[in-house]
Write a structure and sequence with these properties.
alpha+beta; 7 strands; single chain; two-stranded antiparallel ribbon; 2 domains; about 190 residues
Length: about 190
């Protein structure tokens, strides 16, 4: 049942992503991708963790991980600062701590340990032979590096809850312009409530 709910969440998150790019490129050359390797994440094996990664990418987090193993400890400390532990859950980070893109501002979700640690082990095995500095694009059933809104649409983005409050938009509810899982720390569908 839990796997079915997670699969439905992934399908929901991806359903509005018909306008996603399959790969982004450097501004200098349309033929040079901004990654060195791609890895397809197994949505059926680790549905909770992959749903979190999909939501974080859809909310604007990078789908590219530049491997930086030496920076992992500092990134983990920065990303989890102020995020309390919850009994029976791991705090999952995206981008991961071992990514140069990780650290402060990473999207954090509470995920069951079995799913989170299984996904972490699986990803770790995929990255074992890759050197620091390698740029890895993580693929999730077609969801890739960056979401692009149609040009006629305005995209609302808030860097943090202080910006939401300054704009007079607090609280934000799931589906509201500018709502993101990054701003909704307890993942209850209401961001920047207090």
């Amino acid at each position: 049942m839990k796997a079915n709910l997670a699969a439905l969440l992934i399908a929901f998150l991806l359903s509005g992503c018909g306008n996603l790019l399959t790969a982004t490129t450097n501004e200098d050359s349309a033929s040079t991708p901004n990654y060195d390797k791609t890895i397809q994440l197994p949505t059926d094996r680790y549905p909770e963790t992959i749903a979190h990664i999909a939501a974080a990418i859809k909310a604007g987090a990078s789908a590219v991980c530049t491997i930086d193993r030496d920076g992992a400890e500092a990134n983990r400390e920065a990303s989890l600062r102020g995020i309390p532990t919850k009994k029976g859950f791991d705090r999952d980070e995206w981008p991961m701590a071992m990514c140069k893109e990780g650290g402060a501002g990473a999207d954090i979700a509470y995920v069951t340990p079995k799913d989170n640690r299984g996904a972490g082990s699986w990803i770790g095995n995929q990255l074992t032979d890759l050197k620091d500095g390698t740029r890895v694009l993580f693929l999730i059933d077609g969801l890739t590096a960056q979401a692009t809104a149609p040009e006629e649409e305005q995209t609302v983005y808030y860097a943090n809850c202080a910006a939401v409050r300054e704009a007079g938009a607090a609280p934000l509810y799931k589906g509201d312009p500018g709502y993101s899982f990054k701003l909704d720390r307890d993942k209850d569908g209401v961001a920047c409530a207090s």
